Amino acid sequence: MLGKTVDFARKAGVANAWTADELPALRWDAVIEASTAAELPALAVELVEPGRRVVYIGISQRPSPVDSRQLVLKDVTAVGILSASGGLAGTIELYASGAVDPRPLVGATVGLDETAAVLEGRIVTDAPKIQINLSGTGAGAANRNSGAGG
């Protein structure tokens, strides 16, 4: 997943996106950890400069241990954000104005009846999101894309 996510970010124009193996040796004043990899939350704390901040917006299926001693000794602020509520109004405005096209983010739209298949990993796309239509069944393969905005 990490490689696919980085590939997607690069295709979307994010210049500074790396896999863990490609990460350059730089000073990190802040780290936004947005992966689903269980080992990367701890790496974020290791990388960030003392007195700085780590923001967690990704969540792993497995526990992701972080050494609280490192947080304390480095005086690091760690913030977890599970919902998008803080940025929702601005996001809606950008989508409505056409300034941001959300279509490349959604790899498929499925019906509520296919939710279990999504959660079990039987429906997979190149894009980071799968939309679930709560009002009925999905559009099936006709409404699945490879994350290329289709």
What does the model show?
This protein has about 150 residues and is an alpha/beta fold. It has 2 domains: about 80 residues, NAD(P)-binding Rossmann-like Domain (Rossmann fold); about 40 residues, no CATH class. Helices cover about 25% and strands about 20% of the residues. It contains 5 helices and 5 strands, in the order H-E-H-E-H-E-H-E-H-E. Strand 1, helix 2 and strand 2 form a beta-alpha-beta unit. The longest helix has 10 residues.
Secondary structure elements and pairings:
Blueprint: H1 2-11, E1 28-33, H2 40-47, E2 48-56, H3 68-73, E3 77-80, H4 88-97, E4 106-111, H5 115-119, E5 129-133
Parallel strand pairs: 1-2, 2-3, 4-5
**SS summary, helix count:** 5
Identify low-pLDDT runs. Answer: 145-150
CATH class of the largest domain: Alpha Beta
Mean pLDDT: 83
Q: Level of helix content? A: 25-40%
Q: What does the largest sheet look like?
A: 3 strands, parallel
CATH architecture of the largest domain: 3-Layer(aba) Sandwich
Strand content: 15-25%
CATH topology call of the largest domain: Rossmann fold
Secondary-structure class: alpha/beta
Oligomer: single chain
As for the number of domains, it is 2
Strand order of the main beta sheet, please? 1-2-3
Give a quick precis of the structure.
This protein is of the alpha/beta class and 150 residues long. 26% of the residues lie in helices and 20% in strands.
